[in-house]
Amino acid sequence: MASKRREGEHPSVTLFRQYLRIRTVQPEPDYGAAVAFLEERACQLGLGCQKVEVAAGRVVTVLTWPGTNPRLSSLLLNSHTDVVPVFKEHWSHDPFEAFKDADGYIYGRGAQDMKCVSIQYLEAVRRLKVEGHHFPRTIHMTFVPDEEIGGHQGMELFVKRPEFQALRAGFALDEGLANPTDAFTVFYSERSPWWVQVTSTGKPGHGSRFIEDTAAEKLAFEEQLQGWCQAAGEGVTFEFAQKWTEPRVTSTDDSDPWWAAFSGVCKDMNLTLEPEIFPAATDSRYLRAVGVPALGFSPMNHTPVLLHDHDERLHEAMFLRGIDIYTRLLPALASVPTLPSES
Questions:
Q1: Catalytic residue among 147, 156, 174, 190, which?
Q2: Which residue, 1, 104, 241, 319, could crosslink 195 as a Cys pair with Cβ 3.0–4.6 Å?
Q3: For 68-103, what is each residue's pLDDT tens digit?
Q4: Binding site: which residues?
Q5: Exposed/middle/buried for 22, CB within 10 Å: 0-12, 13-18, 19+?
C-alpha cells in the first residue's frame, strides 16, 4: 500500500519529504547536503544561485529570479535550513524518515519549522515560471543557517555583508506559526530577547569547607542585574549575548503598499488573517533592524502548533494549500508599484 501511495504522490510532497530527510539538526547540522539540495533546485528551476559563507561552514544560499525592472527593490523570501534536536523515544516515527501515515500526515523534524515553507517558496516559483510569468521585482529566496541557535552565524552576519546589500531587499517574508483555528496568523513584529551571561569568580573548594567569598555566594538575587554586580563586589560582571531594545514593527496599515498587496491576496482567497506580535524570536528581527519590513507567515491553519515538539507533523493537503497561497502572494508582492523611495 505504501508503494502505491508514493507512486500517486504529488511531486511537491515528494520533494518536501526529500528535504525533511536531510539531517540539518542542531548541534551538528548537515549543511553541505542542504546546500547541495538547494543548488539542484536552482539548476532545475533556472534560477541564479549564490553561496555566501558568513562564517566557517555557515553558508547562506541565495536563489534569484530576476525581475523585469532592476531599479525596483526586491522581494526577499527567507527560510532557515536548521532544525532543533529530537528525542526519538517520544516520536511515533523516525523524525528524519518523513513518514506519511494513511491519513496524509507527514511526520518529521522541520515539518512545520520551517522546511515546509522553504519548499512552498520553491514550488510556487516553479509553478509561476512554468506558466510563463514575469514580474517587475526580483525575487530572492534566502536559505540561512543557525536560526535555531540565535542566527549569530547566520542572518545576523549576512545582513552586514555587501552580498546582502546587493540584494536590495524592499520587503521580506519569513516564518510564522501554525494556527489551530480557521484563521492564518501573520506576525508584524516580535518580542525583544535579552540573553544575559553572568560571570562570577571566587574562591573554589569543597562545600564542606565553608569557604568565604565563593562565586555562588556573591550572586545576590535580591537586586536586578546592575545591583547584582554592585552588591557582589569585585570579580562579578555580566554581558548581554542579545539585547533588543528597539523592536521594529512592520506596517499593517491598509495604506502601506506591501501590506495592501499581502492582505489583498488573502482577502481575495477568503483567508482570515490574525495579525500578532511573534511570541518568540526569528531572523525577521535582523531584517527589520536594517530597515527591511518583514512579515512572519507560515500558511498553516486547522493545524496544531507543533514546532519544536515531539511528533512534529503537517498534513500534505495543508502543505499543498500553502503552495497555492504563495502562488498568489508572490505575483502581488513582486508587482507592487514603484514606491516614492524608488522613483
A1: 147
A2: 241
A3: 999 999 999 999 999 999 999 999 999 999 999 999
A4: 80, 113, 148, 175, 308
A5: buried
Contacts 24+ apart (CB under 8 A), 273-276: 273/183, 273/184, 273/185, 273/186, 274/179, 274/183, 274/184, 274/185, 274/186, 275/185, 275/186, 275/187, 275/188, 276/185, 276/186, 276/187, 276/188
* H helix count then E strand count, the chain: 10, 12
Angle at 46 between CA 42 and CA 50, to 5 degrees: 45
Parse the chain into domains and list their residue ranges: 2-193+244-342, 194-241
| Residue 82 a catalytic site member | yes
Q: Is 147 a catalytic residue?
A: yes
Cβ neighbours of 75 (radius 10 Å): 28
CATH superfamily of 2-193+244-342: Zn peptidases (3.40.630.10)
